[in-house]
Design a protein that fits this description.
The protein has about 150 residues and is an alpha/beta fold. The chain contains five helices and six strands; from the N terminus they run ββααβαβαβαβ. About 30% of the residues lie in helices and about 25% in strands. The longest helix has 15 residues.
């Protein structure tokens, strides 16, 4: 029996409309929607399939791979993916900037990963993470022109 593996790839552009990478997203079928109950499973699935099954180069080429991670991936140093220099770990909006999270992000940066704050909405609570972030991703569809 052949098992299909699916990964969605969404282009990411900078403010000048230059392609900087692709966000790799968990999918279970050809339908462009995620359906999962376990964020750790979804992140692991994306990492394993991107790096081992489908091939990193065929998915992102010379661009960067942006991968959503859960708090467990930040806190547990054995869960991170390969290709540190070409991988940006996205801290999703559900993750709160606790002392442990900030220390974990510092460790990941020291290992060579890029850090992105995903669907970011500013709050002073995130100042330490903003200092560490290489990218701040805004959902432009959710914001008005003045907010952007």
């Amino acid at each position: 029996m052949i098992k299909n593996n699916f990964i969605a790839r969404q282009a990411i552009y900078d403010k000048s409309d230059n392609l900087i990478g692709y966000e790799l997203l968990y999918r279970t079928s050809m339908i462009n929607a995620a359906s999962y109950n376990d964020g750790n499973f979804a992140s692991s699935h994306v990492i394993l399939n991107s790096f081992l099954e489908m091939g990193f180069d065929s998915l992102v080429g010379s661009s960067k791979a942006f991968i959503n991670i859960t708090e467990d991936f930040i806190l547990e140093d054995t869960l991170t993916p390969m290709y540190e220099k070409h991988t940006v770990l996205e801290i999703v909006e559900e993750i709160k900037p606790s002392k442990e999270v900030v220390e974990g992000v510092k460790r990941l940066k020291q290992q060579g990963y890029g850090i992105a704050l995903d669907d970011f909405i500013y709050s002073p609570d995130y100042d330490e993470l903003l200092e560490l972030a290489d990218y701040v991703k805004l959902d432009v569809l959710e914001l008005d022109k003045d907010s952007i």
